[in-house]
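STRUCTURE REQUEST FORM
Protein name: Purine catabolism protein PucG
Source organism: Parendozoicomonas haliclonae
Requested output: structure tokens
Priority: standard
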Amino acid sequence: MTIQSFHPPRRTLMGPGPSDVYPRVTEALARPTIGHLDPEFVRMMDEIKQLLQFAFKTENPLTLPVSAPGSAGMETCFANLVEPGDKVIVCINGVFGGRMKENVERCGGEAIIVQGEWGRAVDPAAVEETLNAHSDAKIVAFVHAETSTGARSDAKALCALARQYNCLTIVDAVTSLGGSELEVDAWGIDAIYSGTQKCLSCVPGLSPVSFSAKAVEKIQNRQTKVQSWFLDLNLVMGYWGQGVKRAYHHTAPVNALYALHESLVILQEEGLENAWARHQQHHNALVAGLEAIGMSMVVPASERLAQLNLVSVPEGVDEAAVRAQLLADYNLEIGAGLGDFAGKVWRIGLMGCAATKTNVLFCLGALETVMNKSGATQAALAVYQQ
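Status: completed
Returned output:
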């Protein structure tokens, strides 16, 4: 058998991720590979740290991209901050809160669950009630932007609660970084992780993280070793530290880091607030179009992510068949539901460079044809003309 080169089809990615990648980012991937301890590469590493501090709105020195996808960023936070016996309050309002619980338990901690409704934000009152009942809790963990449901929780309020009860916070911002308001320092977030493949419109495979001074203090004063050698920040800090001289830890994904650097430069050029506003504008147009053809949004408007839209599948419609037809006829990808929402919803992403008027109108036009409806594109255009 002779295997030939792989040439993927050209898709428009409007699912839950990965998102379409900026052409400048794919160009950056093709630049010459140099050594991961090369002085020029080290200089670029420092720029990536500064750009991530800009994106997270933080001055935390321990801000870096983990050399693996967002799930590894999650595990980095939990493996370094949770020790055996630690009590961690975990807010679950979707699939990814459940993964936080898994991480706590695998680190030997005790997960105290605040169970929320899927498709709704985490309830601060329920969190406070749990904090009152567990005064020995050390950490509060929650998902800021729940990718499985499209719900956005009030990170500022939840972090304020955690501080009031002397708890650190671990926050999942995989889908919010670059697409929703996010202020690590102003909101008092202690540990946060994200991914490159969502609103940054970079290639998958890296996970930006950031840790507060309080979090670093806990990491440096652990009573037990971090269970993962690769993710142990006490070791990683030597490679992502300050200055030209770096301690070898692992061979960094050199070209992927070129790509991240370029995507963050693009974000800096646009401006954070402008990026947030752009995602919101195209979300408003998409929702108007969907509602014009009888579709309803699952998440209430005040708790809704702009970049990840959860749409109820109309009664009698084969949701998988619609997705398959969009892919076959239009090379357009939208996402299926997960967990409690499997088979009941579509997840339509407007992330990074996919959040454009062109994509919104393309997606709505394709849905109009596939579902034999009309009026969606006109409703969206009305929003754009306001």
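Reviewer notes: Residues 272-292 form the longest helix (21 residues). The first strand starts at residue 12 and ends at 13.
Form closed.
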